[in-house]
Amino acid sequence: QVQLVESGGGLVQAGGSLRLSCAASGIFFRIGTMGWYRQAPGKQRELLATITFDGSTNYADSVKGRFTISRDNAKNTVYLQMNTLKPEDTAVYYCNAGGQRTSVSRWSDYWGQGTQVTVST
Fold this sequence. Notes:
The chain is mainly beta and 121 residues long. The protein has no helices and 11 strands. 0% of the residues lie in helices and 58% in strands. The strands form 2 sheets. Strands 2, 4, 5, 6, 9, 10 and 11 form a 7-stranded mixed beta sheet that branches.
């Protein structure tokens, strides 16, 4: 079982920065691609950024140039550096990871519990 625990959310003024962290723990063989999503009230969950085990990244247009995803494979941790935050970035942010429990297990999708980010004007 893989547990993902996010941290780093909070309240910030527009133009400010936050750094989210998501650590994977539990018993597993390996973690593959990791990513960050967000969901604002009344809206669908939105994919923001992904990073492969080898460090290749992809970003949604809404955050490209402002957010940076990175990971530390030794710590099984993924980060999201968020700069120049806007009120429309207010949402619950979720960490996602694909992983295998054993070397012969199928890949499964895991989610964190979410962390609230609120950007004030």
